[in-house]
């Protein structure tokens, strides 16, 4: 069976929806260089229209822009999130998946306002549970519970999970979707 080519973003509206989708998935201020990386890796064709679309989104109140120490940062506004969520399905599903996986490479849970809570508790059967919960500015991002045979293993796992939530998050996305893009 012939594989479908990803949707080409033909109109300015398509480009704006794509940009809003990426900003919504990231949910924290993203600098223009990171935005460029994500666009170049995911957009079938790159043009100056992306910059024009971004500026239009800022002017219309869908995106907030701020310059800090010579860098431009962008974050989606509530209006942009509300409007764009109605239009996400107009984007090619493969393009959405690919861009979300790409954004996961560049974003940090800490930069998203994330908080990591991990604990170890003894189970009745002699094993130990490691509970990990990660939240971001919008609420629960993920929660997992793993059982280990000894307290020492459980504590080592807890420490790793606390120190590397981004790796855990990308690994969970890979395990859930089977898409290798989350690991690269």
Describe it:
It is a single chain. This protein has 184 residues and is an alpha+beta fold. The protein contains seven helices and six strands, in the order αβααββααβββαα. The chain has helices spanning 12-26, 32-42, 49-59, 78-87, 93-106, 151-163, 165-177, and strands at 30-31, 63-68, 71-76, 115-122, 128-136, 139-148. The protein has a three-stranded antiparallel beta sheet with strand order 1-3-2. Strands 4-5-6 form a three-stranded antiparallel beta sheet, with helices on one face. A hairpin with a 2-residue loop joins strand 2 and strand 3 (71-76). The protein starts with 11 loop residues before the first helix and ends in a 7-residue tail after the last helix. The mean pLDDT is 81.
Looking at this protein, list some descriptive labels:
alpha+beta, 7 helices, single chain, 3-stranded antiparallel β-sheet, 22% strand, 184 residues
């Amino acid at each position: 069976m012939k594989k479908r080519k990803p949707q080409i973003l033909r109109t300015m509206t398509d480009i704006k929806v794509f940009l809003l989708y990426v900003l919504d998935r990231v949910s924290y201020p993203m600098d223009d260089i990171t935005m460029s990386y994500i666009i170049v890796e995911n957009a079938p064709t790159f043009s100056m229209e992306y910059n024009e679309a971004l500026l239009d989104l800022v002017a219309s109140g869908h995106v907030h822009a701020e310059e800090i120490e010579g860098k431009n940062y962008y974050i989606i506004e509530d209006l942009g999130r509300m409007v764009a969520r109605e239009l996400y399905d107009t984007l090619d599903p493969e393009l959405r998946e690919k861009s979300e996986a790409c954004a996961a490479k560049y974003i940090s849970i800490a930069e998203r306002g994330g908080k990591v809570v991990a604990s170890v508790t003894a189970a009745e059967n002699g094993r130990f549970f490691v509970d990990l919960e990660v939240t971001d500015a919008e609420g629960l991002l993920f929660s997992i519970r793993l059982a280990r045979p000894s307290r020492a293993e459980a504590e080592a796992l807890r420490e790793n999970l606390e120190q590397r939530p981004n790796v855990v998050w990308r690994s969970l996305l890979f395990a859930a979707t089977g898409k290798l893009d989350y690991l690269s």
